[in-house]
């Protein structure tokens, strides 16, 4: 099967950038990106707060293969970074991301180019506080996205 990671990443970013409630939580951000970016990885320095980074971390043989479909699962990580005393702002942003992406919260299926998204759910969340010159709160949440042709 073709790799649906790029299509999934594009769909998640579009959904996040298009939400007025999330835009309101991203204090100081502006159109068109709203501090929601499509990259992350080793060595990247986060210097914009608050910010969200969306990136695929794993692509695996698909869950819906058992239903006779050519499929893969994309594990998409969404990282939220804030520079605030405490986790209140980071948790509010992360909660909205969850509501927009996890289908158990009522979110609709992602609209993918060339693929169909059958199900998307959150599978883990980690809260980290990073020690730098300024306080940095980091929430890393992983979503499992079941996609097929």
Summarize the structure.
By secondary structure, the protein is of the alpha+beta class. 22% of the residues lie in helices and 37% in strands.
Q: Distance between the terminal alpha carbons, to the nearest Å?
A: 8 Å
At the first level of CATH, the class is Alpha Beta
In CATH, the architecture is 2-Layer Sandwich
CATH fold assignment: STM4215-like
**Mean of residue pLDDT?**
89
Number of strands: 5
Structural class: alpha+beta
Q: What is the topology, as strand order, of the major beta sheet?
A: 1-2-3-5-4
Count of alpha and pi helical runs: 3
User: Could you give the order of the helices and strands?
Assistant: HHEEEHEE
How would you describe what is shown here?
This protein is an alpha+beta fold. The protein has a single domain, classed as STM4215-like (2-Layer Sandwich), CATH 3.30.2000. 22% of the residues lie in helices and 37% in strands. It contains three helices and five strands, in the order ααβββαββ. It has helices at residues 5-17, 20-25, 88-101; strands at residues 36-37, 51-61, 71-82, 116-131, 135-148. A five-stranded mixed sheet has the order 1-2-3-5-4. A hairpin with a 3-residue loop joins strand 4 and strand 5 (135-148). It is elongated and about 50 Å long. The mean pLDDT is 89.
């Amino acid at each position: 099967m073709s790799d649906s990671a790029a299509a999934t990443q594009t769909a998640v970013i579009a959904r996040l950038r298009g939400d007025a409630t999330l835009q309101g939580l991203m204090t100081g951000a502006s159109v068109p990106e709203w501090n929601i970016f499509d990259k992350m990885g080793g060595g990247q320095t986060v210097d914009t707060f608050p910010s969200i980074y969306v990136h695929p971390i794993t692509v695996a043989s698909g869950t819906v293969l058992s239903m006779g479909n050519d499929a893969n699962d994309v594990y998409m990580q969404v990282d939220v970074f804030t520079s605030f005393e405490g986790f209140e702002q980071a948790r509010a942003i992360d909660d909205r991301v969850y509501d927009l992406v996890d289908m158990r919260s009522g979110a609709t299926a992602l609209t993918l180019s060339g693929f169909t998204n059958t199900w998307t759910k959150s599978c883990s969340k980690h809260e980290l506080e990073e020690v730098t010159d300024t306080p940095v709160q980091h929430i890393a949440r992983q979503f499992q996205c079941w996609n097929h042709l």
